[in-house]
TrEMBL record:
GO molecular function: DNA binding
PANTHER family: HTH-TYPE TRANSCRIPTIONAL REGULATOR YJDC (PTHR47506:SF1), TRANSCRIPTIONAL REGULATORY PROTEIN (PTHR47506)
DNA-binding region: 29-48
Entry keyword DNA repair: no
One Pfam family linked to the record: TetR_N
Domain of life: Bacteria
Domain HTH tetR-type, first and last residues per copy: 7-66
Lineage: Bacteria, Bacillati, Actinomycetota, Actinomycetes, Micromonosporales
Keywords tagged on the record: DNA-binding, Transcription, Transcription regulation
Listed name of the protein: TetR family transcriptional regulator
InterPro entries reported for this sequence: Homeodomain-like_sf, HTH_TetR, Tet_transcr_reg_TetR-rel_C_sf
Amino acid sequence: MKARQDSGPRERLLTAAQRLTYEHGPTVGVDALLTEANVARRSLYEHFGGKDGLIAEMLRRSADEDIQRYRAVLDGAGDDPRARLLAVFDELDAIVTRPGFRGCRYLGADLALPAEAHPAHAVTGDYRERIHALLEHELVRLRHPDPGAAADQLQLLIEGTLATGAARPGTHPGRIARQLAERILD
């Protein structure tokens, strides 16, 4: 499915990068991105300075969208911080069991782009800090005795759920992670 033609080249490149890098990884070829977006190579360089800039900006946009999804899940679970945090694992279980689930795009980028200076790593690091802050905020509200360490543990469960969901489809890792999260919260 090609990017919509009623959007500009920048938007089409971002849309194409979001889809193709999720399906094929961040090492997908420039030609495939250009074809999917139906843009000239010049547009890639004008808007992003090259493929590395496109990947970083696509991850930034994806991170913003994913943070909003986390907030929506938390808010949708009511006001109780424990219920809010456990709802994250219920949602993750639903996500990882959907057809076409391919894992965490941020972990995938970190693993596929080994150069430490790649701009994607700053974006994935910032994304993880934002997730940690969301978790820690809820843990403070819960009056957890060590909200920072508990947020680290919950974040590990989140990332493990996403990795296991991709590597072992049909195993419902979100359910197992939820049980472990309950112990952390208690």
